[in-house]
Amino acid sequence: MQNIQSKSRRDFLKSASAASGGLILGFSWLGTQAFGAKVIDPSAVAHEFNAYLSISPDGKITIYSPNPEIGQGIKTAFPLIVAEELDVDFDQVTVLQANLSDKYDRQLTGGSGAIRHSWDRLREAGATARELMKEAAAQKWNTSSANLTTAKGMVISPDGKKLSYGDLVETAKGLNTPTNVKLKDPKDFKLIGGWHKGVDNPKVLKGERLFGIDLKKEGMFNAQIQRPPAFGLKLKSFDASEALKMPGIVEVVSFDNKVAIVGNSTWEIMQARKKVKIDWEKDKDLESSEDHDRIFKTYLDKPDNGEVRRKDGDIEKAFAEAAKVVTADYQCPFLPHSPMEPMNFFAHVKENGTIELAGPTQTPGRAVASISKLLDVPADKISVELTKMGGGFGRRLDDGYAVEAAHLSSIIKKPVKVTWTKEDDISGGYYRPAVRYRFRAALDKDGNITGFHLKGVGLNAGNCTRQDNFPAGAIDNLLVESVNYESPITTGPWRAPITNFLAYAEQAFLDEVAEAAKKDPVQLRLELFERAKNNPVGEISYDIDRFVETIKLAAEKASWGKKKNISQGFSAYFSHNSYVAQVAEVKKVKGQPVLSKVIAATDCGIVINQSGAQNQIYGAITDGLGHAMFGKLSFKNGEPEQKNYDSYRIIRMNEIPEIEAHFVNNGKSPTGLGEPAIPPTGGAIANAFAAATGKRLYSQPFNLEDDQVESYL
Amino acid sequence: MAMTSLKINGKVYETDVDPQTPLLWYLREHADLVGTKYGCGIAQCGACTVHMNGNPIRSCIMPISSVANAEITTIEGLSENGDHPVQQAWDELDVPQCGYCQAGQMMTAAALLKENKKPSEEEIETAMSPHICRCGTYHRIKKAVKLAGEKM
Ligand code: FES
Ligand code: FES
Q: Which residues form the 2Fe-2S ferredoxin-type domain (chain B) (predicted)?
């Protein structure tokens, strides 16, 4: 095989693969050095096809999407950006999910960061290919590429001649890769900002094999794992003699305080699992929800025990001189993520020293690192096939279920797929932490906030505040404290970590402050922003103008304060670099408050895909609303009291309000959208409820806080 | 071993697996039809919905012995080319987010529309509310049911 060398010093190269006969344009999505001006063996390229945007002589264009798809639409949005700059129609493109490869950077789904991170890289990748096509056409027509234009996968000459990209592949092979290519002017975007359907729709709608749970590999066994039923228990002993007599059961093994039942079919395993006798013993505290309430109270009441996250001015003085002090506690429970598809993972630890992994994961790289360490197998001997995921919400940022599968495979020396039942999943930990906040606000006689004190106590929440977020910067005297209590109950990031409950508490509290200050809640916020703008106090994490613009758009679209017979609640939050403001509306129906509508305004910069963006707003608001209303995981002696959808309530179709999604159109570089619409939702609906009934909702889930809430939906 | 005879998407399957095996697991692991999904296993979420003689049932709690000889239709058999009006409407309105719940949702919608092409908002909610979509695609599902009705 000949070596093909990229002359480019950038992380972009092209190479011709004799095998495929096509032009393969590779781009590293980070600019890892892996591809910088490196000689590449085309046969290897053909092998590791996944890092590339490829164009074949028959005009087939393939774009690989490296980031895990959990329903956030990345598999449609990423390729759209490449296709936009490449200047092709989206239906000319085939999109494929790339597996884990060190050719890509940040191959994870979390923090709503993918689009923001990759925006420039994806555009450059597409634009470089486009310019190369123009160069190739210029050579064929013996003209300068500056005279040429492109459209729909064609290069066009001034006199109307056309050549398709496929026709130009052969010529392009011999050319140097252009550098410093010009990106499109956003006003010329043809795809970005349009309405595009999910690229996986045809397969999803036909029920094709797509998800991790659907995987079936050669010689594969199934397994389920019995983990400690309560947090704080560990395995003492087990007796599998009866289970082993059951049909289809191959092995029962224990590792890591767990007992794995390995067999042929899931149903047989489920039956045998009931027959395994397991003794557990106490290892740590077996906490109940009452213990948590006591912990919250103790730590909130005890002064000076929090970690000071931010301190501006003199808070003591501000409260001593206050004309009025407002104070309130807000509490949120543990929540499981409970994606529709429960955890599952396939692993095959092979005799030849390699490991094959496949399954749904938001962080394939982390799984590989952990498994490499546990089994002492070099990371480059471990492959991961990324499957589509039936939701994630942060649950699949955990690598535990992948590690567990690999661990099991290494013990039984067989390829195995471990599938969790919904009960396993809901009682499996990695929860949103439970948190209680105490807010205090000092007001002067004119209703200005002169002091603000937030103290949060979280159970395995780490820092349960976001100290530099609004209203920090707008208040002279501010104290933010966080206490982390270590509990045996395991926690992890849950869609919009921390802010998904912090924002509710804070936005509900601000509403209470507005009431005490006799100010309109929107006006109160705008005054604070004005203050922060003219004379900011310390560091702030948000952009005041963008925040204000978003708030104004929501207020305008909702005709804030101008509607008759409708009570409105306002909330606005900045997270994941995006701004979302929401107005929730309540109507009285037969004297009962009913949540009729949520109007959302979002600034996430340029919207890549209208359909995907609207889906994320609808979905996040439904998620935020549903969990604020009903989500509760309580504990008795370390054991979760809710284990499946019969007791763990998820919002349903008959309970959703109308939702309006509006976007600020400011042409700024795009930011995250998978999470930012969740944080404001709880506050907006709590405030609307308060406006309608006079009652404030201090604790989630709201349906347990006030029985009127049941009629609210 | 007792044999069970099943008719799935027009095809006959003779099987000796435990007659107590829920249809869901038979479909997924024995008939290799994985479009029908496991979501809860206790008839709470609807992800496993298939048709039995045209009516939506929860396959996760239905032993194969009790559906023997009935006409079972799964998402794979809803249409030959994935172009049932419900599938078309779901695509047109870009309903799926993660997509995991949608096979079940579509099976219920198809059964509803066969009886009633113009369901009211309330009728749609009554039919569809037994289904959980953790991604929150309910707004578009509602619209898609209406649109599919118009296409039928
Ligand atoms: S899996 Fe059957 S209803 Fe949930
Ligand atoms: S689309 Fe994800 S659960 Fe419905």
A: 2-78
Instruction: Please check whether residue A58 is in contact with residue A168, taking contact to mean a CB–CB distance below 8 angstroms.
Output: no
pLDDT band at A217 (very low <50, low <70, confident <90, very high): very high
Nearest CA in chain B to A392: B98
d(CA A708, CA A435) in angstroms, rounded, equals 24
Q: What is the pLDDT of residues A413-454, one digit of tens each?
A: 999 999 999 999 999 999 999 999 999 999 999 999 999 999
The CATH number covering residue B58 comes to 3.10.20.30
Give the A:B interface size as CB pairs under 8 Å. 179
For chain A, which residues make up each domain, given as ranges? 11-205, 214-283+343-419, 306-334+431-711
B119 and B69 housed in the same domain: no
Find out whether B87 and A206 touch, Cβ atoms under 8 Å.
yes
Instruction: Write out the two tokens for A335.
Output: 């929540």
* Ligand 1 atom showing the smallest separation from residue B37 Cα: 1
**Is the domain covering A11-205 a CATH 3.30.365.10 domain?**
yes
Question: What domain count does chain B have?
Answer: 2
All residues of chain B having their beta carbon less than 8 Å from the beta carbon of residue A340 are 37, 39, 45, 47, 98, 100-101, 132-135
Decide whether A214-283+343-419 matches A306-334+431-711 in CATH topology: yes
- How many A from CA of A176 to the centre of ligand 2? 45
A441 Cα to the center of ligand 1, angstroms? 48
Interface contact flag, A207 B76, Cβ < 8 Å: yes
d(CA A614, CA B88): 20
pLDDT band, very low/low/confident/very high, at B141 (cuts 50, 70, 90): very high
Residue A88's DSSP bridge partners are none
The answer to whether the CB of B58 is under 6 A from ligand 1 is yes
For A550-603, what is each residue's pLDDT tens digit? 999 999 999 999 999 999 999 999 999 999 999 999 999 998 999 999 999 999
Instruction: Lay out the sheet containing A592-603: strands in order across.
Output: A566-575, A578-589, A592-603, A658-663
Domain spanning A306-334+431-711, CATH architecture: 2-Layer Sandwich (3.30)
Question: B67 with B110, same domain?
Answer: no
pLDDT in tens, A185-195: 999 999 999 99
Residue B145 identity (one-letter amino acid)? V
- Write out the two tokens for A648: 């763990």
d(CA A434, CA A85): 45
CATH numeric code, A214-283+343-419: 3.30.365.10
Chain B CB within 8 Å of residue A494 CB: no
Note down the domain range covering B69.
4-78
Check if B138 contacts A (Cβ < 8 Å).
yes
Residue B37 and residue A644: Cβ atoms within 8 Å?
Answer: no
Phi-psi domain of A52 (left: phi exceeds 0; alpha: psi -120 through 50; beta: other): beta
Find the residue in B nearest to A270 (Cα): B21
Helices (H), B9-84: 23-25
Q: Which residues of A touch B134 (CB under 8 A)?
A: 338-340, 391, 393, 623, 650
User: Nearest by CB to A618, which of B129, B132, B136?
Assistant: B136
Which chain A residue has its CA at the smallest distance from B105's CA?
A: A205
pLDDT for A233 beyond 60: yes
Minimum Cα–Cα distance from B100: chain A residue: A390
Please say which residue of B78, B104, B122 terminates a domain.
B78
- Portion 612-651 of A in contact with B at CB < 8 A: 612, 615, 618-623, 626, 644-646, 650-651
Q: What is the pLDDT of residue A69?
A: 81
Closest C-alpha among A489, A506, A496 to residue A429: A489
Residue B133 CB–ligand 1 contact under 6 Å: no
pLDDT digits 0-9 by tens, A279-316 = 999 999 999 999 999 999 999 999 989 999 999 999 99
- From A132's Cα to the closest Cα of chain B, the distance in A is 34
Give dist(CA A442, CA A199) in Å, integer.
52
